[in-house]
Amino acid sequence: MKTDHQNKRGLDVVESLCTRDSYEPVWHHTKPDIPMLSAEVLYDVVELVRTVLFPGYFGFSDVTPETMRYHIGATLDKVFPLLAEQLKRGICFATDVCDRDDHAECEKQAKDIARAFLSSLPRIRHLLATDVQAAYAGDPAAKDPSETILCYPSVRTLTNYRIAHELHRLGVPLIPRIITEQAHSENGIDIHPGAEIGERFFIDHGTGVVIGETCIIGRNVRLYQGVTLGAKSFPLDEHGKPIKGIPRHPIVEDDVIIYSGATILGRVTIGKGSVIGGNVWLTHSVPPGSRVTQSKPFEEQFENGGGV
Fold first, then answer.
1. Do residues 211 and 190 lie in contact, with contact meaning Cβ atoms separated by under 8 Å?
2. What is the pLDDT of residues 240-259, one digit of tens each?
3. pLDDT by residue (tens digit) across 26-82?
């Protein structure tokens, strides 16, 4: 049983947490009748979409050509209202569209975006199918394309990224970032949804890879663990704050390989067919067909303490 002292201490904590200067920096003031969007529901939406993109691998496993139409149709019937509701909440959170009491415009916009997103699923599946083939072809340890779908963090993360990128392309605020960060938390691969990535993309092993918002990556590109495609600096406005949205990350052309631990910074171009070696630090463009490696280490041998 709590003592009076314990009760008073608990009340003091509550009072302290309820002072405006305490909660104001971290408080979300909901608009009337519009709750905050749910990261948990968005996770469920992505998992449902994953079962559509890779039928039989995730979710209901007994999918046949005869039941395919039912499986996909029934799943998308679940996805649409869940996604539309989260889109409405996200739009209302980030904009003033939903300031009116009826929220009709916000709801219409959310449903239009949800329909446009579902219409993009065949194209997303095509891109992911090329990513699966790139993973299988690029890793001698892969015995079968199915192994890459079920086991490889690259394929799982790219599924989240390609879903999020389409929503980003449709102008959706906040939600694409939540979706890519969920994959980042799972697999340690950080891809901003604004990055543009071509088909047949493979990240081997993957942990520690960072791909920035304005990166442009061509076709048939392969990265290894620990690669950073980042910004070199952040131009500031007249108030000393970073200018948002300007191109500041690398362009990686087709058929490039970047080995583990390489760091490429700034709006530089890695030319087609280039190979960037492990642990290279690169802040300038290189022409097509380049081979960039670290300098060879200098070795000397001494005997009997000579040279020390």
1. yes
2. 888 888 999 999 999 999 99
3. 887 766 667 889 999 999 999 999 999 999 999 988 999 999 999 999 999 999 999
Structural domains in the chain? 31-188 (1.10.3130.10), 195-296 (2.160.10.10)
Contact 44, 83 (CB under 8 A): no
Q: Using CA atoms, how far apart are residues 82 and 65, in angstroms rounded to an integer? A: 26
Residue with token string 């200018």? 243
Q: What is the pTM of this model?
A: 0.90
Task: Name the token pair of 80.
Answer: 């649409």
Task: Assess contact for 222 and 258: CB atoms under 8 A.
Answer: yes
Write down how long the chain is.
308
Residues 134 and 223 sit within 8 Å (Cβ to Cβ) = no
